[in-house]
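Target protein
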Amino acid sequence: MNTRLLLTTAFLCFPLLGGAQEQDVLPLKSEPHHHLVLHNDFVNVYSVQVSPHDSVALHKHDVDAVSIVLGDAVITVKSPGKPDVHQNVMGGQLRLQRSGLVHSTDIEGDAAYRNVTVELLLPQQGGRNLCATVISGEPLNCPDKPTQRDPTRVSEEPQFQSDQTKATLVRIPAGKSAPTGSSALPGLIVALDEGVAISGDSGPGKLLRRGEAWWRNSNSPGQLFTNGVTTEVRLVSFTFKEENPAK
């Protein structure tokens, strides 16, 4: 085979190889560790659990998503063409995964990795950290000067906000309740801990399990979130503007 033929053959193979590599990048909904538990015009909510020393397959985020870590874990995030990022993530931590992100995740430690991934189906503008680093590398914009938290009272800690979405961490001490009040805005609640009971005008409702998501429609009556255990429980509360929900 002469040199020209060798070069021509190699050139023709490159598109085929590139196509094979692109096919290896899964959409988020097809990644086998992501299990869809809630869908509507505003969000897709996925429950994620990965065993120690297993990996989340290479996948792509087509919309912005907030990852809510449910327990401490040691992970390595790998993105094609970028250095690996080793992280010690903590339960209750929120992280923004931007639209277009392609990555896999290796679970390095002996603890399983659990999170709830909330895809934000409305296009997000003006995203910013509030009192927590949800967007890596961005400054904090905490609306209130941090003060020492009273562990005997319900507290709300703003985490992240865009023009369309706001996320807040709610802490409920043992034996206490957090009323939501009626709201014109739709919302999502994700339980970080066991022991939260939801009640409303119709009486006692359901008990939220750790990692479970609960949706509130717009203009819904108020609910009461009651801590029925002897330790603090935490919720992540999302509210969404209702203009032009995704279809």
Q: What stands out?
A: DSSP finds one helix and 20 strands in the chain. The longest strand covers residues 43-50. The longest helix spans residues 3-23. Confidence is low (pLDDT under 50) at residues 5-20.
